[in-house]
């Protein structure tokens, strides 16, 4: 029996510019920690090889420190690692890989395929047919040579590639780096390890995307995992076990509020979140002043407890009740302005609601502060 750990799309060096620095740094650090967990998993499971199917780095300009840190993280597994470049870290004439070579950072147990070649591991009678990307986008199938590749008799044949299986994945990623959907069958592969799609996905009985080991976006595509693959005799279907590897859980929630129970449900959802959650929240509908205050307080409490919250309340209208306004003692001209803002419709309604929210908030703060000494 041969066992491999299949992973891809580490995206080391990724920057999270849309997040606050307090959140961006831990999210970037989590990618290094994911590699360390993979190395520990490989050791614990006594795998024969770790296969990394491209996009090890997020860009060609990754710093020397990040390069060294990444390869130091491999030290937790002393067995062989097989890597190929993907579209983010393609094997250009001058690339992150040539930088790593000049640094002397590549460990001895790493088999790096910067050009199409077969990596042979005699100890486990395993031949890995590697199809690295040598430019960011290609329009021919770089795995085509697998069909004619010769490997030692009786050895397992593993394909390693990075790209889009044609006719199966979304059209917007099928334009470049194509892979034939029946490549495993045509090339007599016992397993085809793919990268590029960031979620775990089975394409056929012998072909899988592992997905990224640490989520990096809110798309719900079953990311944050790696694959333990058990191979028996050549020609047998592999046994694939999905293993959770993620530190953070990315969630995208769109929540409309129309009645008080809708807000209660949202607050209950927020209360269940913890330090491992990264949340993108969009709230729509309308609330009165008391419920608006409850929502803001709940968001503040959540922000202090979770890794990150990005909230969009632009579609949420503040609709203070007559009692809200009465309680604010908004008499005279201020009361007239509030009424005018409440009555505004059409193209100016959103700006009017924003102004109403600001004005009522200021009135609440004034009333809370009380008379000055």
Kindly state the number of beta strands: 17
CATH class of the largest domain: Alpha Beta
Spatial strand order of the main sheet: 4-3-2-1-13-14
Derived structural class: alpha/beta
Q: Could you tell me the strand content as a percent range? A: 25-35%
User: Biggest sheet, in brief?
Assistant: 6 strands, mixed
Tally of contiguous helical segments = 9
What integer value in Å does the Rg equal?
27 Å
Our measurement of the CA-to-CA distance between the termini, rounded to an integer number of angstroms, reads: 82 Å
What's the pLDDT, averaged over the residues? 91
Shape: elongated
CATH topology descriptor of the largest domain: Purple Acid Phosphatase, chain A, domain 2
Percent helix, as a range, is 25-40%
| Domains, number | 2
User: Which architecture of the largest domain does the CATH hierarchy give at level 2?
Assistant: 4-Layer Sandwich
Poorly predicted parts: none
What's the layout of helices and strands?
Elements: E1 2-7, H1 21-44, E2 49-53, H2 64-73, E3 81-84, H3 96-103, E4 110-112, E5 117-121, E6 126-131, E7 156-162, E8 164-165, E9 178-179, H4 183-186, E10 191-195, E11 201-204, E12 207-209, E13 225-231, E14 239-244, E15 249-257, H5 260-271, E16 277-287, H6 289-305, E17 308-318, H7 322-327, H8 332-343, H9 349-369
Parallel strand pairs: 1-2, 2-3, 3-4, 6-7, 7-10, 8-9, 10-12, 15-16, 16-17
Antiparallel strand pairs: 1-13, 5-6, 11-12, 13-14
